[in-house]
Amino acid sequence: MHKIALTLPLIAALALPMGCFYGPELKPGPAPDAPSQAEYVAALPDADRLRPNLPQGGLPAMADDNNTGLSDYYLLTHDVTDDINDFIIEVLDIVNDITAYDGEWVDDYTLAWGPIEYSPLDPCVTYLAVTWNQDGTYQWIFMEWPKNGAEEDGVVDAWGIVDPYSNYSDNGGAFWIDFDLMQQMDPTREPSGQVYVEYELEIGVGAAQAWFDDFAGDHGEDPVDAYYAFANELSGAGEMLFGFVDDLNESGVDEVMAIHSRWDDTGAGRADSTVTAGELGETQAHVSECWGADFAMVYHEDDAGWSVPEGDETLCAYTPGEWPDLSDLDAEQTPE
Q1: What does DSSP assign to residue 9?
Q2: By the number of CB atoms within 10 A of the CB, which of 15, 88, 130, 141 ranks highest?
């Protein structure tokens, strides 16, 4: 499969000193100017606030194969947003669960949790360390090793950096998850590949964007590179952008497709997609579909003659259309 060559930043600078794991014995307390343990925990990515508001209703599916009467693009929006975020949120949920317990000071500015074994059936143990830097940022690192192995057998399979801004309710940061390494530690895990995420959390709003590299959600799936972004509001409204490469019409050549979906607090929404490459060559085709608060399609049209126009655009929750810019899938795209 043809893949978009995403250029991902080096995260080596986020690595904590190995002495945090193997070096000095635990010390009784932090440096006098170190933040409190509660501040360390508050700085970590919040799984609940990064969880997207989905346009709720109906069972998610890539298309309405079961003739439920729901909009295909609603189902696609729901499925993509739900599945992709589940992969990311699952890791952050582990981090949040670990920090529900008291950590121990590894050095003057590093708190650690673990190693933790969740059940006798878990094949690995987990370890989390968070370091406060003098510039006010935090670095965190998530490590696992085989249950019957030694720390020296461990791998760092997730790590990140956080800027808490002026308070801990508003913060931004970035993190990397290596699902290949996580799968090595626990073969029952299904995702593979890597993901790099940048996020912003403010009161009432959450937003994130992610670059997926060689990613597959299940064993046996063909890996793809993709770009994904979403934004939430407390009202329930939200939007997402998703781009990927696939052989959409099973012609033997891959197309590039990007979808921009928006929905309001009733769940009514609109998806605008751009398709190019493959049999289209350099031509870009555009598709729009809208759904109502009951998630049934109220409008559908494309400019490539693929389907007969249906419905009435005046019934759309959003007008005019906002088709995605394929520069998000550019081979030189680099997270900033």
Answers
A1: P
A2: 130
Dist CA 11 CA 15 (whole Å): 8
Q: What is the pLDDT of residue 151?
A: 84
Global confidence as pTM? 0.76
Taking alpha carbons only, the member of 255, 305, 296, 300 closest to residue 278 is 255
Q: Return the percent helix, strand and coil in the chain, to nearest 5.
A: 20, 35, 45
Site of tokens 């009435």: 312
Please state, in angstroms and rounded to a whole number, the distance separating the CA atoms of residues 161 and 11.
Answer: 10
Residue 109 pLDDT = 94
Q: Which residues contact 210 (CB under 8 A, 6 or more apart)?
A: 84, 88, 195, 196, 197, 198, 227, 228, 229
CB atoms under 10 Å from CB of 273, counted, come to 22
CA nearest neighbour of 49 among 227, 198, 232: 232
Asked if pLDDT for residue 60 goes beyond 60, the answer is no
